[in-house]
Amino acid sequence: MKTVISASRRSDIPAFYLNWFKDAIRAGFVDVANPLYPQQSRKVDLSPDSVSWIVFWSRNYARFLKEPDFFSAYQLFFHFTILPQSKLEPRALPLPKALHQMEKLTALFGPERIIWRYDPLVFWQEAGTLHSNHNPQHFKELCHTMASFGITRCYTSLAHPYAKFIHRFKLTFPQNRLMHPEPSLQQRLLSEMAEIAAIKGIELFSCSNDRLLSIKGIKKGHCIDGNLLRRLVPETKISIARMPTRKDCGCTKSIDIGDYRTQPCGFGCLYCYANPKWEKTKVTHRP
Predict the structure, then answer these.
(1) How do residues 34-60 score in pLDDT, each as one tens digit?
(2) pTM
């Protein structure tokens, strides 16, 4: 069986470290540090003889789209995070640019190889009013546009209350209070989203939030989905063994490359678990 490379849950490689990844492809291997014990590393074979699929994760595919044929020896799959911009995502790509990139990706690779990520959803109280980075009208408009590209899968989740996220939020917005929506609000919100998506032929999947599966129209997400990849290219054999990365994760076996510490994501989103070098300045100034 060949390997599935995840590029990556640890940083936005397409947006910030694509040249590094291309150099690794040319070399035929990459050294990957253990995220818990960085002094330990493993050499990962990147040759086409060993790797079948590369699964990309990003908020910005501009650099990738300049030279997509570089990866022609591999099968490619894409996660593309597109959310309405809020103060939690100060450097996120403006929606028109993101949608233009999505249109190009679907034209080049087909919508069946792309997952639109509308996550994580975050809620906070500001001056006594509940706010969120989720906007129902924007979600409806995004579903309409995604459907026009042929996209049929949308992954969503509620932000996990990681200790460093709570700390960052308090530090950046001391007058606001981070909120976790009550079950009744979760039910109403996700039901509404599922209905809006379904009208446009888009299925809504829950990523690592199994408590949402009781809501009609919500399916369990598998970000690395060996069964789906096998269906897309039946002649390429890959593992379908489950290999979760956290609670409720439905992913199958893959190898994550990149490094949390030496390759911090430049977007500076407050809720991101993958950026230990986050600083307040990253979210108070636009580049």
Answers:
(1) 888 888 999 999 999 999 999 999 999
(2) 0.94
How many C-beta atoms lie closer than 10 Å to residue 213's C-beta? 13
CA atoms within 13 A of residue 105's CA, in its CB half-sphere? 29
Q: How confident is the model at residue 278 (pLDDT cuts 50, 70, 90)?
A: low
Residue type, 89: E
